[in-house]
Amino acid sequence: MSDAFESPIARQIAVLTAKKRALKTVKTPRPATTRIFTVSNQKGGVGKTTTTVNIAAALAQAGLKVLVIDIDPQGNASTALNVDRQGDVAGTYEVLIDAVPLADVVQTSPDIAGLECCPATLNLAGAEIELVDVEQRETRLREALTTYLGEREAASDPLDYVFIDCPPSLGLLTMNAFAAAKEVLIPIQGEYYALEGLSQLLNSINRLREYLNPNLQVSAILMTMFDRRTNLSREVADEVRQHFPEQTLSTVIPRSVRISEAPSYSQTIITYDPEGTGAVAYREAANELANQGAHR
Ligand code: ATP
Ligand code: MG
């Protein structure tokens, strides 16, 4: 092996080039029916929003029709997708509280064809409390989504994927996401308490499966902010994979400054740095998810 190839940077470039070449040849199949994911983890800052917007963007860029529902009052997914969430713009709040149809509030991404977003505006922060007194408080989103998917189907323009970006809690907003979804995508950051958090989350999902959504399945676990240089990242990833071999995606998302910069330019990594390691990793993760769906 030449000296150049043995330098870590040269090796990284070679690996990245090989991955990009492989991505050119893989197919991103369209699912037979709309796949609805809730991207959940009650732990804060583990990469839920980053995963939601970047996988959604990658799938849309591959030619699929994708809707992101921002059900987190922080509105980070709406910001990253560059949709309007200011002033009197209507969004998830109106869908949940006033039963406004999703079709009336969904915005299309200005940057990526086939990608749309139901934005989270500031008033969504009050919804957690307001929902307590509303009828069918846990299934409001499910109702709205079922109607919208039916309308899209009837218009011969069906959606392929829906991703719901959850807040870091297990309150009524997250419950609405769990009730509306068919599948759960869990992003996990390689840190000491990750596994403990994961087992709490799985217990909660098991409980709510009993009374809210019997068919809900945890279909994907994605390691985020992975740092190859630390043993901890690797150990957590190994342990998660050991416990959940079927669900854990083999792609891991590396820690990357570019990934964390993209939202401040109202962009996903897919448009902000399309050739970098972050975009390549999220495109790989999106393809893995899409091909996993093809086998269902
Ligand atoms: P919250 O629980 O607050 O909703 P979250 O789980 O949605 O958080 P993110 O907002 O996606 O987490 O990520 C938390 C922070 O980490 C953000 O500042 C984000 O830009 C950054 N981040 C996410 N993924 C990566 C990555 N792979 N490399 C570097 N930074 C990242
Ligand atoms: Mg978030």
UniProtKB/TrEMBL annotation:
Transmembrane segments: none
UniProt cross-references to SUPFAM superfamilies, sorted A to Z: P-loop containing nucleoside triphosphate hydrolases
Residue span, AAA domain: 35-218
InterPro entries: AAA_dom, DNA_Partitioning_ATPase, P-loop_NTPase
Annotated protein name in UniProt: AAA family ATPase
